[in-house]
Amino acid sequence: MAGKTRSREITARDTHQSIEARGALLLDVRSDEEWRLAHIPGALHVPLSQLDARLPEVAPDRKRPVVTYCAVGARSLRALPTLDELGYEDAVSMSGGIVAWQELGYPVESESGLDAEKRDRYSRHLLIPEIGEQGQAKLLETSILLIGAGGLGSPSALYLAAAGVGRIGIVDDDVVDSSNLQRQVLHSTAGLGELKARSARAALEALNPDVDVVTYEERLTSENVDRILGEGWDLIVDGADNFPTRYLLNDASVWHDIPVIHGSIYRFEGQVTVFKPHEGPCYRCLFPQPPPPELAPSCAEGGVLGVLPGVIGSLQATEALKLTLGIGEPAIGRLLLFDALAARLDEVQVRRDPDCPVCGANPTITGYIDYAEFCSPGVSRPAGAPTGQSPAPPQPDAAESTAPSGAVSPNTVPYGAALPTTTRESQGKAR
Amino acid sequence: MTTVRIPPTLRTDTGGESSIPAEGATVRELLDDLTGRFPALRERIYPEGELVRFVNVYVEGEDVRTKQGLETTVSDGSTVILLPAMAGGSRGRFTL
To answer: Domain A9-109 belongs to what topology?
Structure first.
């Protein structure tokens, strides 16, 4: 086509058609840096200053139509005289450049696989050398499981979703109650009475459609823990509110070899640490025994400053992102103690216990302990439960050693009592 | 003089005090002094002069169980932290 006398520019839309219909060569004349950030798939890249030297070699067919492009259309127009001199017979410039191309919704790609939308959304991450495109791409491929979508789970989930963690799992069987809304910022007044897992999913999907939210509308138990943990999670954020779940999760995470970012809160104080199986201590190394129930009040009984889980849950999310990206010093073997009233952050060392019943050299706990069975002796196992389990009956003798004055109330029985004796014969599956 | 940090769940036994000065060259002497003044605390975490298993004691950030236990020395001016596990998180119940 003898195009020398007609307009030397075509629109992005015509360019798109020209590639399809005429097999036009798309030539990106921008810098290497611009090319890396985003370019049109299938385009050839030769920076403007190198056209003379390199173009004939990489694009020998002078008869093939060529469309040059740059950012907004200026440099690509300036490239045309050079192409003419080199003998390219049908060269035009795309007006408006890659900006106009993207405005029409046509695809672009980058070296990391992040599209323009993602590069824009995560631009403040991309600017940090420790994260960059590679780190962001890694976050988008990471799966993090949250135990609980309450006080701690709310800020964790929101920040992890905002950060572009590709897959977030939520285990929670509770419903949104008005007394939750003072601190559980995932949920809203409109969601009262809704399952927290569903309310959380709606909030996270609205925040970031890049995130695949997986919900488990159930409480973590010895029955479901292997199934749930077995679904490909890289990390677990523990926002549970009770000791049976925390010990169950600990044992399962050691056997499934998944790091747990632990957080707990009470009134004005919170704790954060990372349990990385076999590299650092586990929860049982730190607390071999839970306190008696009268010293283990929940938020409902003891109260909690609404913002406190915001602080602790955000610290958990921070540790989760650090572990994913492999940057910084994760809080493995260190328990951080936050005191909101004193505005103080203390740190104590947590060492692996060589005699730990779960992660020690000679573990004595090799199957799941269903502490729930012992909380209420009157409650029997649900119908249809596997018969492979043989929970021992409550052991008043053992309970006496931990419960004050030998009182065997339902709540004092579970913790110390049957700890080493009641195991589940499913360890092969667990590991 | 050593400062002993009292966790929130044990403050009912210390009249609400969160930080209490105590004397002692070892953890045992320190706990003797402290719990001598707060009998309810003694009954709860230090009955018959032995530390219950559910409370960790840290001297300058180190768990005394990884050192010399109750005989771990405490230097003047140091901070000792008493710490039981806290369950609190998302839900309002600690039993199933």
So the answer is: Oxidized Rhodanese; domain 1 (3.40.250)
